[in-house]
Structures are given as structure tokens and as C-alpha cells.
Design brief:
Length: about 650
């Protein structure tokens, strides 16, 4: 009798795991293998696992049941706890692969191929993190030349929740870098990963978990109001747990209906003889959230009967439905004829593409026929919303077209529940849906590009950014998990700040928080923004600078990774002498130096003359004979040009620093 036989029941009760030793197929004697199990959707073919860290595999299964896992000739047994969660841990490995990961239950085995071990980075933030490679500078050439089997990409689905999710709801899957996978991926993440992979020579995995327009509050655990009544808080938590169960059940049902071709339930709703008199009426084209179903997410069936002339019978037809937001399964006389997209796999990029389908002639009859379109949507407006004509005609005979715009019958098939509220407000965050599912998955570090939505609240951000870093580190179990913070770039037409400058003050907060946080590093972008575009296109240089910082600060490579860092200012009569941190790359500027300003006791700043003197900069201004304050690059879009010999810019600063 082996040790697992002795300890199996106790392990099952605690949801723990045990390695059976050297057996390639361990014997599970005390705990039955699980009939039902689901590995986390983080795992797929082409997966990248973090090197030099324990390799952790996890998911859900029938409580108390076991799974056998094999990876690179090692075997583990995991037992699902009372909550259905299981976890297996393999020994750390250096970079390498490809490997195969197998997870075996009673009746089936999940097998993931082409698994690599290398470096994994978690990239998050708002739209400048989410901005696609297809929108970056020189996109066509970048995409065409993007194939790299050692760079793997993963995009998390957008999801908010009032409670933490332990699992991703959809199946994003890892994808090697190719033109098709790179075009729609985070440009910041891709160019960072590309540069890092080239420099390190090992597999690199980039996780993009971002959402345009989100404030930092979205990426922190929600703070419930402290003045809420205890009974209201208890009710809210109960409603949130109910919501989460119902949400997962609704998505599971919708995914199952979408997954199977000619699903019996959908075929029944699409049957020509179905009595649909109780169905409601919608006028199409149109988006349902703007008309029939405000705030609705889920699946809706739309039916349209049409009378066809006798000479159409048996002829192949051309069916045009316009654009459909997001996913559709289209039936003709009860038989599925076409499908586009998948909610489960986050294949929703077809939301603005007109549908053009063929109807097989054997389905076409004289007289009454029925078109049924099942539309699934989890974000945005939803529905058959036009952009192109809705019509049908015999193939090759556009002159015989019948218009399909007008009244259609509709019925809700699956409804995703609405978020619970507390005191009339929702407290659902992307943190719960897009960060917590990754906490069990080891990563090397995080890249954070966010702040545009918080520029008017810099003082609050000074408290929130350290909270975010500390929380993520705690949950990943890495007290100094590397964080690379992208400082906001130059933007707008403001070249000098006559009064307050929110973006300049916000950049200072980013700089000071980073300087005060061990393991956090700042990427300065004050020279690669665009006055008229909040989404600057030069993400290549941003990715290069991020990779330089990672190579130097995280991997210890001897490369110049950051620009000159001002450490203090000495006020000497009519001049100010600014000191910089010693660096392997000397100060440099194209003459004259731009961006420096001085102020006296009146607090009014004037443009100043500045000269490099070794490792210092000396600043003077005729209008300020006795300066008391100095600042550099202090505006939304300042003219500034102080760099080092490596061409990396100096971060904006001011002395004395403000509290």
C-alpha cells in the first residue's frame, strides 16, 4: 500500500495533492478518478510556463475526486477539494520544450501540445495597453514579418464581476506569433515580448489583460461603502454569490448551444412549423440594447417567415443579413446553414462584418420558408444591426431579390443575469474577472500602462498605485514581483503650463511611486507621444524601452536601460545646479537644452537657459535673479530634449518636490 492510499481521504478533504513517485501511471487506490473535470482555460496548446518556478496546473473537478497529471516525464496526482478546486505542482525547469501536458480523469484525457517553458509577463491597463499592432506605426510591415514560434500571445476576455473569479469564462488560448495572431494583439505587449525574446533567446509568453477607458479602480478589489448597513452588505454578498452561480450557468448553456452544429434545442426553435405567436416583434436592422432589450446580454432567437415563388424551389439562394453583433448561428427551415464566431473562444471580431451565406437548394421550397438567426452578445449593443442590405435571392440572380428588413419575431434563449447593486450602485471590477484568475499562474513580472482615465485624480492615484502593486504581489506570492510602469507620454497642444498641468502632476506621481517601490521601474515616454492622438503609434520604441528595463533590472544584463534620473537641485544665487544619478551613459542634448523653467518667490515660472556640466545641469534665467524652484518638461506636451548618450529621455521633474 503506497502513501497516497494512506493519505488520500485526508488530502481529498483538504483539496491537496501528492506526487506518487516515479510511476508513469500512478495507481489511485483511495480516491476515484474524476468523471468531470475542467483544467483552467489558461492552459491550451502552445502554452508558455514560467521557467525556474514551480510549474502549477489547476482547475475544477468533482469534489473529492482525483486526476493524474503528467508533464515532461513527471507525474502528479491532484485531488479536488470540497469547493471543486484542484492544483498540481511540478518541479521548476529551465527554458525549453516543446513538452506535452496530460491531465487524465476516469473517461477522458486532456492533452496540451507544444508547451514551452520560458518567460511569462502579465500586461494590463487601459486602451494604450490594448491598442492593436494593426493600429501601430508601420503596421503592415510589422504584421507581415511577425512570425516567431518562440513568442506566444494570450488575450484575456473582458469581464467584470462583483466577486473574484477563480476561472476565465471563455477560452482565449495561447497562439504563437503569426500575422493572424499578432494583428489584433496588444502592440505594447507584442513589441515588448518581441524585443525580450530576441535578447534572451528563450520562449516568451505575453498575457494581455487590458480594457480601454478603465480607471485604476477597475483593477483593484472593489471597496464597498463603509457606511452601508450590515444587513444590506450581507444581502449584497449573498446576491453576488447567486449572481456568480447564475452567470456561470448562463454562459455554460450559451456556450453549449453555440458549440454543437444543428443543436437540437436551436433546431426546434428554428423549425418551420413552430408556433411563434407568443414571440415578440422587433424591427430589423437594429441593435437590441437601443430598442427591444436595454442592458441585455445573452442569446436571442430572431425568426422571419418568407413566401418564395414556385420557381425558387430547389435553387441555391444567397442570403445577406448585414452585420451581426457579435456571434450568430443561422438556420433555414430548421437546419443550420452557417455560423460565425464563438462566444466561448472570444471569437467576436466579426461584430461589424456583414454576413453573406449560401442556402442549399435542398432546403428551399415553394411557399412558406423560415429564416432563424440566433445571436449571442456579451458586450456592446447586440443584434442584427445593418451596415449592409438584408436580402435573399437565387444564386446568380440579384434581380430577383426579396428584402428582409422589417418585422421579425424574437425570443430570448439565454439571459445573462444583471449585476447586483448596493445602494443603487454596482461594485463589479475587472480585477475580479481579469486578474484573479491568473494569480495561481506563475509569471515573471507585470507591465502596467494605465492612467489616462485618472489624470484628474493624481493625489488619489498616489495611494492607489502602491495598493495595486502590493495586492497583486501578495496574491501572486512574490513580495517584489517586478512591475514595469509606463509613464504617460506627451499629449495635447500645451507646450508650457501657465497654471496647473494635470498630466505633468500625474507623471510625477508615477515617478515618485515607482522610485519608492522596490522592484518597480519607470519607462519614460515623454518624447514618443502625439499631440493629437491619445494613442501614440510608436509602440515599437515603447516595447524596446520596456525590454531594456527588463533585461537590466530583472535579468541583470549590462545594458543601458533608462535615461538620466534627477536626484536633487542646489540653489546657488542666480543659478540652480541639478544633479543626476551616476550612469554608464553620460548626459546629452541637442543644443540648446529645452524644457527647463525657473521661478522665484512669486511662483511664476519662466523659460530658462540650461547647460550640461559633466554629470550636472546648470540652469539660469534673466527674469529670475534669485530662483527658488526649478522644473523640467512640466506640461502636457512639453518641448524637452535632455537624454543620455543612449538616447533615453529624462523623466519630468521639479524641485523642490511637492507633497
Amino acid at each position: 500500500m503506497n502513501v497516497f492510499t494512506l493519505l488520500g481521504p485526508a488530502l481529498a478533504g483538504m483539496g491537496l495533492l501528492l506526487w506518487t513517485g516515479c510511476a508513469s501511471h500512478p495507481v489511485v487506490e483511495a480516491v476515484a478518478l474524476a468523471d468531470e473535470f475542467t483544467p483552467s482555460r489558461i492552459f491550451s496548446d502552445h502554452l508558455v510556463l514560467q521557467r525556474d518556478r514551480p510549474i502549477v496546473i489547476f482547475g475544477e473537478a468533482t469534489p473529492g475526486c482525483a486526476l493524474e497529471l503528467t508533464f515532461d516525464r513527471e507525474t502528479r496526482v491532484a485531488v479536488a477539494g470540497p469547493d471543486g478546486r484542484w492544483r498540481a505542482e511540478f518541479s521548476p525547469r529551465p527554458a525549453g520544450g516543446p513538452y506535452t501536458l496530460e491531465i487524465r480523469g476516469r473517461n477522458r484525457t486532456e492533452r496540451y501540445l507544444d508547451v514551452m517553458v520560458g518567460e511569462v509577463w502579465f500586461c494590463s491597463g487601459q486602451s494604450n495597453m490594448g491598442m492593436h499592432v494593426g493600429s501601430a506605426a508601420n503596421a503592415e510591415t510589422e504584421v507581415r514579418n511577425s512570425t516567431n514560434p518562440n513568442l506566444r500571445l494570450f488575450t484575456a476576455d473582458r469581464l467584470i464581476s462583483p466577486l473574484p473569479h477563480t476561472e476565465l469564462m471563455r477560452i482565449p488560448s495561447w497562439k504563437p506569433a503569426t500575422p493572424s495572431s499578432v494583428y489584433g494583439f496588444s502592440a505594447t505587449g507584442y513589441f515588448f515580448g518581441r524585443e525580450l525574446q530576441r535578447a534572451l533567446g528563450v520562449p516568451v509568453g505575453i498575457i494581455n489583460s487590458s480594457w480601454g477607458g478603465t480607471a485604476i479602480e477597475t483593477w483593484l478589489p472593489p471597496e464597498l461603502p463603509t457606511n452601508a448597513a450590515p444587513a444590506a452588505l450581507a444581502a449584497y454578498r449573498e446576491q453576488s454569490e447567486t449572481y456568480l452561480r447564475e452567470f456561470r450557468a448562463a454562459l455554460k448553456r450559451m456556450f453549449e448551444l453555440e458549440r454543437e452544429v444543428n443543436h437540437p434545442e436551436l433546431a426546434a426553435l428554428a423549425a418551420p412549423g413552430l408556433d411563434d405567436r407568443d414571440w415578440k416583434t422587433a424591427r430589423l436592422p437594429g441593435q437590441w440594447e437601443k430598442s427591444i432589450l436595454p442592458g441585455f446580454d445573452g442569446m436571442v432567437a430572431f425568426r422571419r417567415p418568407l413566401e418564395l415563388p414556385a420557381d425558387w424551389a430547389g435553387r441555391e439562394l444567397e442570403l445577406e443579413l448585414g452585420a451581426i453583433d457579435e456571434v450568430d448561428r443561422t438556420y433555414f427551415n430548421g437546419v443550420e446553414i452557417a455560423r460565425r464566431g464563438s462566444s466561448e473562444r472570444s471569437e467576436v471580431d466579426y461584430w461589424n462584418r456583414p454576413r453573406y451565406y449560401r442556402v442549399p437548394g435542398e432546403l428551399v421550397r415553394a411557399g412558406r420558408n423560415v429564416i432563424t438567426v440566433f445571436v449571442s452578445d456579451l458586450t456592446g449593443e447586440g443584434g442584427l444591426w445593418g451596415q449592409a442590405p438584408m436580402r435573399i435571392n437565387p444564386f446568380g440572380a440579384p434581380g430577383m431579390t426579396l428584402a428582409l428588413e422589417g418585422d421579425w419575431k424574437y425570443q430570448v434563449v439565454v439571459q445573462v443575469p444583471e449585476l447586483p447593486t448596493l445602494n443603487g450602485k454596482t461594485f463589479a471590477t475587472a480585477y475580479n474577472g481579469m486578474v484573479t484568475p491568473f494569480f495561481e499562474f506563475p509569471v515573471r513580472g507585470c507591465v502596467w500602462y494605465q492612467g489616462e482615465s485618472n489624470t484628474q485624480r493624481a493625489r488619489t492615484y498616489a495611494r492607489q498605485l502602491p495598493q495595486l502593486i502590493a495586492d497583486w504581489r501578495e496574491h501572486w506570492g512574490e513580495p517584489e514581483l517586478p512591475f514595469l510602469i509606463v509613464q504617460l507620454p506627451n499629449y495635447t497642444r500645451q507646450r508650457r503650463a501657465e497654471g496647473p498641468s494635470p498630466w505633468a502632476e500625474f507623471r510625477e506621481v508615477q515617478r515618485r511611486v515607482t522610485a519608492a517601490t522596490p522592484g518597480a521601474e519607470l519607462v519614460v515616454t515623454i518624447d514618443i507621444g502625439e499631440a493629437d492622438d491619445i494613442h501614440p503609434k510608436n509602440k515599437q520604441e515603447l516595447g524596446r524601452r520596456l525590454a531594456l528595463l527588463a533585461r537590466n533590472k530583472v535579468y541583470g544584463r549590462p545594458v543601458v536601460a533608462e535615461g538620466p534620473r534627477a536626484t536633487g537641485a542646489e540653489f546657488k544665487g542666480d543659478r540652480v545646479v541639478i544633479s543626476f544619478q551616476p550612469s554608464a551613459s553620460p548626459l546629452r542634448a541637442v543644443s540648446p537644452l529645452l524644457g527647463f523653467e525657473l521661478a522665484g518667490k512669486d511662483g511664476k515660472f519662466h523659460p530658462a537657459h540650461a547647460e550640461i556640466a559633466g554629470a550636472q545641469v546648470v540652469v539660469t534665467a534673466p527674469e529670475v535673479p534669485a530662483p527658488t524652484a526649478v522644473r523640467y518638461a512640466w506640461a502636457e506636451n512639453p518641448e524637452c530634449n535632455l537624454t543620455n548618450q543612449a538616447g533615453l529621455p529624462t523623466a519630468p521633474f521639479r524641485f523642490p518636490e511637492q507633497p
